[in-house]
Design a protein that fits this description.
Strand content: 35-45%
Shape: globular
Pfam family, one: FlbD
Structural class: alpha+beta
Order of helices and strands: EEEEEH
Low-confidence stretches: none
Helix content: 10-25%
Radius of gyration: 12 Å
Organism: Treponema primitia (strain ATCC BAA-887 / DSM 12427 / ZAS-2)
Strand order of the largest sheet: 3-4-5
Number of helices: 1
Mean pLDDT: 92
Largest sheet: 3 strands, antiparallel
Protein name: Conserved domain protein
Number of strands: 5
InterPro entries: SwrD-like (IPR009384)
Length: 65
């Protein structure tokens, strides 16, 4: 799970495995596999860094090498 911040300042955790795509509209917008749209304060670079760190922690890159 990665921590993100909604536009109202509420911090919460999201499962990065459920993100289908990320857009900048200009806010960072996730389209989830469920079809739900989530808008967060973090920019795309911050989100990608959090996803990479999360995958390192869980060993997610071992199967991709």
């Amino acid at each position: 799970m990665i921590q993100v911040t909604r536009l109202n300042g509420l911090e919460y955790y999201i499962n990065p495995h459920q993100i289908e795509s990320i857009e900048t509209r200009p806010d960072t917008t996730f389209l989830m596999l469920s079809g739900k749209v989530v808008i967060v304060k973090e920019n795309v670079t911050e989100v990608i860094d959090k996803i990479v760190e999360y995958r390192r922690r869980i060993g997610g890159f071992k199967n991709e090498e």
